[in-house]
Specification:
The complex is a heterotetramer, with 2 copies of chain A and 2 copies of chain B.
Chain A: E1 3-4, E2 17-18, H1 20-34, E3 38-42, H2 61-65, E4 70-72, H3 77-89, E5 93-97, H4 108-115, H5 118-121, E6 131-136, H6 150-154, E7 160-162, H7 167-179, E8 184-189, E9 209-210, E10 224-227, E11 232-236, H8 239-253, E12 258-262, E13 265-267, H9 271-281, E14 284-291, H10 296-307, E15 317-321, H11 330-336, H12 340-353
Helix pairs in contact in A: 1-7, 3-4, 8-12
Chain B: H1 8-33, H2 48-55, E1 63-65, H3 71-77, H4 81-88, H5 122-136, E2 142-147, H6 154-165, E3 170-176, E4 179-180, E5 183-184, H7 185-188, E6 205-209, H8 213-228, E7 234-239, H9 257-265, H10 268-278, H11 284-307
Helix pairs in contact in B: 1-2, 1-3, 1-10, 1-11, 2-3, 2-8, 4-11, 5-6
Classes of the chains: A alpha/beta, B alpha/beta.
The structure holds thiamine diphosphate (2 copies) and magnesium ion (2 copies).
């Protein structure tokens, strides 16, 4: 199921490096060129002299595609989601966005009760090919601008959920999301946007990625082994992939070879890849930025614990944010967001104590 | 079809649809009483002029959205009664293959999005449909039904504003039947007419006698003209009344008996029958034939529904994703 | 931590039997009599000649307490939740409700971003003592009137979550919820309301419970051993407690003694009780009506799997609804809702195969 | 205090508050540039007359709610500048003990709910506060600040309607600064004035020059009178302009330079200073003293904030539950 990084078509072959923002922007413009039905809906996404959305992803697109296709909306998140769903049922392929993922709660009924269920309630007669982009992650903006919300949407049947960790995946997954005939919630991490061509985020990490000029898609439901290893499996998404990779490098210095799996999509989820790796390393941990209780990691632990019962030498452990809102003060926020140190310590404990 | 020139055939057709709506609800009422239908139901007897008047102004390709009270909308839009009845019977031949039920009746291919049972939840969807029509350069419109109760929910505000600023081809239709469940409309809003809220979005608001099917038709017709010619939405308020309780379990004791009685005096089906026969558009014999043919159609629909196969239990698992 | 049923103060001692609806109504009226600050907010809750809310819980309360305290609202779920939160911060103790839990999505921002976080964002200076009541469970009303939503709220730090399975617990927990200084989401199952003094629900089960006339409270965070057993632990809530008890009776006939734990509150959760039982029976399963992926059972499986690692003889298994919206047709809905048969079969497999 | 009789001391006090708001924002601007403050910030220079005019009509026990742009509201309401500055510095002496930050400034005991950074999210909360006041028989009111952008979100509609039907003691205050982030107000609503929307709820809507602090005071005063006497809410629209970009990272290129220049001509702080000195209410010397004392207060606030202890990392875990 999962492709080791080296097998990914042309990823490393390309000399061109892009930031996440550039990669996502390219995905949008390629898809808009390819398919006239693709339109964008969101706040401040196309205003002349404006931002190109809260994080510049749509910058320049109104200039190329016009305001008919890059549609600036009022601050009306419920209607943004619902209008996107209605337009999708009506034959368009809208890509909507909220400026911060936290605002998805406002649109929750339209996403979870309408977009997600229209197909089912109609007995399969309707498709709702829409994408809702949403930036997540804590960046010293306090409780209402820093949540990770993947778990809420992973729990809604009828929604797909993507969460790329790097520009290459970002582009390939966004293109796939746009072509998918189902509603897709597409999470982007604020600290991964990169600084080139993007709004600079304090604490952001510079993830420049090889992005081939040739078109490619990344299928949903295929996790990626971001780093192979034999001693323990670390499953992560978004920013936590990078923390986990950094932790793996530190662990390697201590003789522990951690395998890091980037889930890439949470719905569908690549159960085979994770189960295979866990059976092989016999130890599993999950790293997510979301609050511990009820995070998506709980589902991974529950299901892998079940299907790999007897094949694991240690308890499945989760590293996640504590069960608190996101605090403002950087000192507390650093405590809140799972750190490389915690990942290292947890892996080390699992490897040495079991 | 043009508003000013409803011809005999059209009028007779509208009348027949109204009778079909009414008798459908009557059948459904008894089917529920007899325990032959599962779930619950919100009936629309008394509101037929609104459903039929609105849909009589629509053309092929237009789309309606509806609510928890969708039976008459679906019938007025022309969905086959068989497929509606079968859906209420939870059969696989139902318009939603048994997955939707009363509150989600619809068939997009036939011009009706599955009804949305979250009050106000369909308003953004209708607006999105209209955006698609506008974008694709179609001459179609979306007709968005909702109740007076929905006028107080956030999506009403957000979506109508969006429809307004983008001049979308959509008509927002508030069936003001004076109550949201047990709650009288004047307990929950200070304005007398929902249509007064149109001004907040800079679009026309019109209040019409919702029990006069031709008045509804005319008002809807002008609204569709505006919508089709790029002038944007209208908020059309249809004053009407439901004869039954809010839902199956509701005897409706919160409504003064005189009020109910007064509205029953203005039964839209009876009124139209009288108007058409008075005007010599229908003979009494023709009217009777319409009633009979409706009974027959419903008889067949029930038979069809009853004889149709149930879905399999495992069908539960399909249709989640495309 | 957990009290075996027999120790519960005066529960079985009372001769008086009430339905859930009666017990909840009594909790509301007792608390309203006791504390002038308790008010009710909701749709159709106090209209003369009306329903007393969607399921008659508030029937008669407007007559006793007047419309100043039993406040009928417009259909405005976001504002209902937000006004309740604001009034709570302002010194009242509002008990709000939505007619069907499914509508909580409309109020999600006000619940998850505002009510849940006000205290935290203020540095602990504000309390938000409100209750949001919400009926859950599938009852042949289709996709938008039958969801179980506990997991969404269990995942929001700052919210407490209660889910009583019987009239005794219903009354005691609701009274505790009203006195709690935090926002509490209070889930009630439609099929447990009972028919006496309530709207009759097809498929509802008649759970008449001993409810003492003397006042009592049930503390949050104390699970209840609804049936003791030695062979396997079944953790459940709401309707599923009853299915699990029924399954336990069937299992007993086959010589398997299942211990059934009623969680009663999901936040706080009685980890000790479940862990203790699981360690004792060495087998654990979780039964919930919610969709499998990301249900609250995932958290239970994940956490107990971790803390009881090595103490269990079988994988932790979850019985839950499939990952689909709620279907309308009764034949499909029966398939959707976890059945006694499935619980029996799952328990039997765990006991016999491991 | 009565609207018609603002005396010298009051006017001087209002002026000082405006200067404090302005200079607070100037300091904060440079503190951010210097990298001494974490996170982001939405500044309100240019909108001081609105914040101070509104709060000058409030009394002890009244409560304001605010937005992502709360600094001037907090200062106008009289929260100690030290505790605000310390919060921006993320210190444990901050008004939210470092947990809130710029977007959640507030202190309920001092008459300000923590600011709500979800656009429109505070409107139901303010309405709930007002419900509590009404229920408890207090003579207090809630003053609910939000922007023009918030006028298009569902909670605006739902909560104002509730305030209206229950005649709650609340004033809904829309600071219409012509833009929601980069989006010009006339792109997203068809009505010219947000106050026109009041009619949809059957309450008065008033539009006032938001850069004229005494005009704001007078309008707010009448609105509070209505609210305090049980006549219900008012929707008060204050026309104003922010001098800076939307947030720290925004240079504001979407606004025509002439527009910005024209509004800077109407700088509310300068206008009021001129009016007060022209009218002889303040001498130039007194005005200068006010500026100086404000500088001093801010100097101390920064010093206090810098010297205050940071919260401990583990403080993250407290204050989730009462
Ligand atoms: C968001 C939401 N809140 C509450 C309900 C429960 N409910 C169903 S219909 C109804 C009343 C609706 O009134 P109105 O919009 O006037 O429509 P009518 O029933 O009169 O046709 C209510 C409260 C719901 N379905 N959705
Ligand atoms: C619900 C929601 N949507 C979007 C945002 C992002 N955002 C923050 S401020 C803002 C503009 C608000 O405009 P307005 O209400 O006019 O207030 P102003 O910034 O002009 O003071 C936006 C879009 C948000 N915080 N909340
Ligand atoms: Mg109604
Ligand atoms: Mg603004």
């Amino acid at each position: 199921m999962s492709l080791p990084e080296t097998q990914i078509p042309a990823a490393e072959a390309s000399a061109r490096k892009l930031t996440m923002v550039e990669a996502l922007r390219e995905a949008l413009s390629e898809e808009m060129r390819r398919d006239e039905r693709v339109i964008l809906l969101g706040e401040d996404i196309g205003i002349a002299g404006g931002f190109g959305g809260a994080f510049t992803v749509t910058l320049g697109l109104a200039e190329e595609f016009g305001h008919r296709r890059v549609v600036d909306t009022p601050i009306s998140e419920a209607a943004i989601a619902g209008v996107a769903a209605g337009a999708a049922a009506g034959g368009l392929r809208p890509v909507a966005d909220v400026q911060y993922g936290d605002f998805l709660f406002i649109a929750m009924d339209q996403l979870a009760n309408q977009a997600a269920k229209l197909r089912y309630m109609s007995g399969g007669k309707i498709s709702v090919p829409m994408v809702m982009r949403a930036p997540v992650g804590a960046t010293t903006r306090g409780s209402q601008h820093g949540q990770s919300l993947e778990a809420f949407f992973t729990h809604v049947p009828g929604l797909k959920v993507a969460c790329p960790s790097n520009p290459y995946d970002g582009k390939g997954l966004l293109k796939t999301a746009i072509r998918d005939d189902n509603p897709v919630i597409f999470f982007e991490h604020k600290l991964l946007y990169g600084s080139k061509g993007a709004r600079k985020e304090a604490g952001g990490i510079e993830v420049l990625g090889h992005v081939p000029e040739k078109e490619y898609l990344i299928p949903f439901g295929q996790a990626k082994i971001a780093r192979p290893g034999r001693d323990i499996t670390i499953v992560a998404n978004l920013l936590m992939v990078h923390r986990s990779l950094q932790a793996a490098r530190i662990l390697a210095e201590r003789g522990i070879e951690a395998e890091v799996i980037d889930v890439r999509t949470l719905v569908p989820f690549d159960w085979d890849a994770v189960a295979e790796s866990a059976r092989r390393t016999r130890k599993l941990m999950i790293v997510e930025e979301d609050n511990l209780t009820g995070g998506w990691g709980a589902e991974v632990a529950a299901r892998i614990g079940d299907i790999c019962f007897g094949h694991l030498d240690a308890p499945i452990r989760r590293v996640a944010a504590p069960d608190t809102p996101v605090p403002f003060a950087p000192v507390m926020e650093r405590f809140y967001i799972p750190s490389t140190d915690t990942i290292v310590a947890t892996a080390q404990e699992l490897v040495s104590s079991y | 079809m043009s508003a000013s020139t409803l011809d005999k055939t059209q009028k007779a057709g509208m009348f027949r649809r109204m009778v079909l709506c009414r008798k459908f609800e009557e059948r459904v009422y008894y089917l529920f009483l007899e325990g032959r239908l599962p779930g619950t139901v919100h009936q629309s007897a008394g509101q037929e002029a609104s459903a039929v008047g609105v849909c009589s102004a629509l053309v092929e390709g237009d789309v309606i959205t509806s609510t928890h009270r969708p039976h008459s909308h679906a019938i007025a839009r022309g969905l086959p009664v068989k497929s509606l009845m079968a859906e209420l019977f939870a059969k696989s031949t139902g318009c939603c293959r048994g997955k939707g039920g009363s509150m989600h009746l619809g068939d997009l291919a036939l011009g009706m999005l599955p009804a949305i049972a979250i009050v106000g939840g369909g308003i953004p969807l209708a607006t999105g449909q209209a955006l698609a029509f506008q974008y694709l350069g179609r001459k179609n419109i979306a007709a968005c039904f909702f109740g007076d109760g929905a006028a107080n929910i956030g999506t009403f505000h957000e979506a109508i504003n969006m429809g307004a600023i983008w001049n979308l081809p959509v008509v927002y239709i508030c069936e003001n039947n004076k109550y949201g469940a047990s709650t009288s409309v004047d307990k929950v809003m200070k304005v007398e007419h929902v249509s007064e809220r149109a001004a907040a979005y800079g679009i026309p608001g019109v209040t019409v006698d919702g029990n006069d099917v031709e008045a509804v038709h005319r008002a809807m017709w002008s609204a569709t003209e505006r919508a089709r010619t790029g002038s944007g939405p209208t908020l059309l308020e249809l004053e009407t009344y439901r004869f039954s309780g809010h839902s199956r379990s509701d005897p409706g004791h919160y409504r003064p008996q005189e009020e109910v009685a007064a509205w029953k005096q203005r039964d839209p089906v009876a009124l139209y029958e009288k108007a058409l026969t008075d005007q010599g558009i229908l003979t009494e014999e023709e009217a009777r034939q319409i009633h009979d043919s409706v009974e027959k159609e419903l008889e067949e629909a029930v038979k069809f529904a009853e004889e149709s196969p149930s879905p399999a239990a495992e069908d539960c698992l399909s249709d989640v994703f495309a």
